[in-house]
Amino acid sequence: MDLEALRDAKFKALGEAVTDWRQMRDKLKTLASDARRELRTRADRANWKGVNSDVTRPFIDKTVGEIEDARTQAETIHNILKDTCAELTRYRDSLEFKLLEADAQHIRVRDTGNGSFEVRAKDGADVPLPTLDRFRDDIADLLKKATTSDHSAKEALCALVDQSKYGFSDARYKDRDEAAKALREGERAAALAKDPTKADELNRLLKKHRGDSLFAERFATKLGPDGTLAFWAGASGPDGPEPAVQKALQKNISTTLALATQSDSPAMERWERNLIKAGPGAVGGEPGGPVGFQVMSNLMRTGDYDDTFLNKYGTALVAEDRRRSHNGEDPGWDTDSSHGLNPNGPDGGLDPMTGYMKALAHSPDAATEFLNGDHEGPRSPSHTPDRTNFDYLFKDREWPKDYGPGGEELHTGKNYLAQAIAAGATGTPAGEPIPKNLPPHTEDQARLFEDVVKTVSKDNKQLADNGYMSDSFGKMTAHYLPDINRALANDPLGDTPKLYPISGAQADLSKRDATRFLFTLGQNPEGYAMVQLGQKQYAANLMDYHLNPDLPADQRLIQTSDSPQEAVRRIAEQSGQVGGTLAAGREEAVLGKAKEDDESFTHSLAQGKNFVSGAIGTGIGVGTSFVGSPAVGAATGATASTVSSMVLEEIFEANETKNQENVGYIAGGKWESTQDDHSEIHQRAAILAARAHKSPYEADVADWAQDGTGDGFQRAHSDVEEMTRDIRTDG
Predict the structure, then answer these.
(1) For 251, how many CA atoms within 13 A lie in the half-sphere containing its CB?
(2) What is residue 614's predicted lDDT score, i.e. its pLDDT?
(3) In three state form, how does the secondary structure of 486-499 look?
(4) The whole model's pTM is what?
(5) Are 375 and 325 in contact (CB under 8 A)?
(6) Which long-range contacts (CB under 8 A, 24 or more apart) does 198-203 make?
(7) What does the pLDDT average to over 115-136?
């Protein structure tokens, strides 16, 4: 910065900009509050259907999010401008004082242009050289600081704006110094990554800046795609840092790179494009060593990568995988097994599809788009693939074998595939509880679930021989219980849609496919537990919903205008049919070839409490437009809770008690006792719901629920027998 520019600076325009951005921040703060309170709240309560579910609802959610980001960005810009204006004003005032002091000591200071200046004694004045040097150094220091403040503010503001090409960034910084430091330390981290001896320092820096958008983007772009691959190929190898450091590095770099891909800066777009281009080639040109896809996929197991990047990466990976494996017939990724690219395990990281599936499991929207598309790209009006990526990965691909330290075969890749499928079909990242306001299913999500059910129905070995996938598929199915119940009711033209309300898209399932799928899922303890518990919660919520006297007339069953008998009986019947089909699957697992231990079903039910706890009161299955009403003290004098939460709590308590006698509540025993258990649960749900709404039919609902459960189990028995005959005939 020139001396005259700083000395004569008025900063009027900059001050006005600070004021404008402060006002903008305050207005957006109010707008964001209104959007959350009015727009999103009303959207959460609305009954979305058809195009509105697929287009309008996501648009509203995105709009609210953009307003929040706009407010955050306005606040950050205001903070940077305010800080910069204050700093430059302080440096200008200090310079003015320094020039007055120099003049008083007969020293002339003259601007010579291009940031240089001259300090010398006035004509005839006798000024010691040290004094001249002191003034020269002080003024140079002020100009340097002012230049740094000005340039770093510009750099931070440009980097901030580049974060999002069309919308706004959610990056938040309290002042210019903090933003500038993020960029500076991002560059330092990239430099450290090029020095193998600095792994500890790099780890600390990455951890310190976790969640820092500007740091992440600067780190990735300065390191570059080739540098990123070369770094991890070396750091994860036998000559890399100690195992504990390797494990921490893998997680920290993964989350940092994931955040970096959220940036729309031109530099980051080049990074993504060139990294994908480097995917098929050997890292560093070393023949026999790992290729780019193998290295990068192991840096995708943690964090939320950008959806567009994930789909482009996946499309290129599948194309290369098909080429190497002859369209999935052979494992295509045999390399030097001594090179462990995945220090956090459990697999060694040689199959790049494994790490990529884990990335999709964390990014539901990307999983939906990728699994419904193929190696030519996502599904679109002009491109509807005959065989999707789901078909290729779930049915066609020969997944490479991987073994643990004890020689046991691992199934990490297909397990992560199941997590990715579940995330793509439900909109919920793997391992996270069901959010309270999870949007209704979209057409693409429902289509993916349809593909799973139809595939398993046609060839149940796809799931039965890979039981480790059942926990993810069980959780996924719990989201689609309204769709499953409608399919089993087999009543497309009747009043079943009112009995099982669905917001958003409905999965188009046949009764035959739904039965076969549930029967197969019931053969695995975890799959059995997830759906059984989910169905009991769903049935309790339905009874709560249909027994509510304030339910609008156009949403209530015609038969329940005067009495809820038909609703209670049919809910129990359908829930009994689901429970009976699962119980038949469990019986097949215990008594059939699998010889599954019956106690494992009891144990899985107890563990299922961790799953349903996050979904209590939401109307599991997402599609319902209701939330269970509070039933104050209806059970044991406890505080306010929902009918479904109390029913589930009773299941867990009863299961713990009976487990001491090696008898599991809805998990063991003969068919008759299993039916009795289900009947008791449905009766209890009906009583609690009737009591919560002060229904005059409280004394009758238990009988209605018992009758319905018995009919449902009978229907399940008939359906399973018919299914068995069909399988024998097909065979």
Answers:
(1) 10
(2) 45
(3) HHHHCCCCCCHHHH
(4) 0.81
(5) no
(6) 199/235, 199/240, 199/241, 199/245, 199/249, 200/241, 200/245, 202/249, 203/245, 203/248, 203/249, 203/252
(7) 87
